[in-house]
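#onboarding

Welcome to the new folks! Below is a worked example of what a typical request in this channel looks like: someone posts a single protein sequence, and someone else replies with the predicted structure as tokens. Don't worry about understanding the tokens yet, we'll cover that in week two.

Example request:
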Amino acid sequence: MSLQGKRVAVLLEQQYHEIELWYPVYRMKEAGILVTLVAPEAGKTYLSKLGYPAKADAAAGDVSASQFDGLIIPGGFGPDYIRRSEAMLNLTRDLAAAGKPIAAICHGPWVLCSTTALKGRNATCFSSIKDDVINAGANYVDQEVVVDGPIITSRKPDDLPAFTAAFLKALAG
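Example response:
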């Protein structure tokens, strides 16, 4: 199955981790996937942990799960802010309910902890949020990428190649 024309949402908020956002974004674009940076406000520029800017393409409240084939949740401290946005959580919940691939890396699974997407699944994350992932109902597994149905999780930037490859495979069906 070709990935040309597939649509992926990437959640964006302040304090995102640069490489965990941009590495997957560029890999998706290389594969012909249409990438939309989704944040609380469209057109707003959000700064990374190191001050690198990313401009939101769309507001979470203005898009729906039906517009996307998958979702990526980068880490950094952005997920802590993403969890404060009901529109961002609703988009994540709706994509999970539709069984579409959702990939979360490092602190990204924090967003999934605010939904029921991890309940009964195997997952991994950055070590400091391991308890949150377990308390959200997941079975924590310490490996570079964990794929459990449509949920794909990884621990840290070093895992990005395996993380991105697993997400691309899930998108391809």
